[in-house]
Design goal:
alpha+beta; Pseudouridine synthase; single chain; 34% strand; 9-stranded mixed sheet; 2 domains; globular; 6 helices
């Protein structure tokens, strides 16, 4: 599988680099890279390149992304997801389903977004999450993103299921946090899965265990 593009279904609680390291180990290759990072708490499609194909990874970075996820209304965490503990509870009893649907549509289109402190965005050469874990809040530059669609697929308060199609550079955690602020009750991302990058679906991706089994089979073990 040297000089190949691989489609991997990233497991929960793995960093994107954990996947890269594992693929290096399983395939006994030194040169492995990935296009588009997924947060540790997110699962789903991760595109990797091996050998000479690492040079082609940039062509995948700019493709639109599709996610499905679940948010919880009425709670907020510093990381905007389940990586950190809840620091604030707010009532959500008076939030109607109509408000939820209507508010989601207000986020469709071009907009600016501030990356969360718990992110790999660099500040002084170090990822922001290192400062966040020390309780520091640093200024972050806004970035322009595009939300092509933000569909609410199910509501069972406090849980809200959704599907988002967006541009590169979009933090779904930040989108959920902003959505909760717009509803004035707060919201935290509880699960997230990337199901598509451009025309590539997670349905065609290999799990880590499937990759290991394939490699063993090819070796006749």
């Amino acid at each position: 599988m040297n000089d190949s593009i691989l489609f991997i279904d990233k497991p929960i609680d793995w960093t994107s680099f954990d996947v890269v390291k594992k693929v290096r180990s399983v395939l006994h290759l030194r040169k492995v890279g990935h296009a588009g990072t997924l947060d540790p708490k997110a699962t789903g499609l991760l595109i990797l390149g091996t050998g000479s194909k690492t040079k082609e990874l940039n062509q995948y970075v700019g493709l639109e992304k599709e996610y499905v996820g679940v948010m919880e209304l009425g709670v907020q965490t510093p990381s905007y997801d389940s990586e950190t503990e809840v620091i604030e509870h707010c009532p959500f009893d008076e939030i109607s389903k109509e408000q939820i649907y209507t508010t989601a549509q207000k986020f469709v289109g071009a907009q600016t977004q501030i990356p969360p402190m718990y992110s790999a965005v660099k500040y002084g050469g170090k990822p922001l999450y290192r400062f966040a874990r020390q309780g520091e809040e640093l200024p972050r530059a806004e970035r322009t993103i595009m939300i092509y669609s933000f569909d609410i697929t199910s509501i069972a308060l406090p849980s809200v299921d959704f599907r988002v199609v967006c541009s590169k550079g979009t933090y779904i955690r930040s989108l959920v946090n902003d959505f909760g602020n717009a509803l004035e009750c707060g919201a935290t991302l509880r699960s997230l899965r990337r199901v598509r990058i451009g025309s590539f679906s997670v349905d065609s991706a290999l799990t880590i265990s499937a990759l290991e089994s394939l490699v063993l089979s090819n070796r006749g073990e």
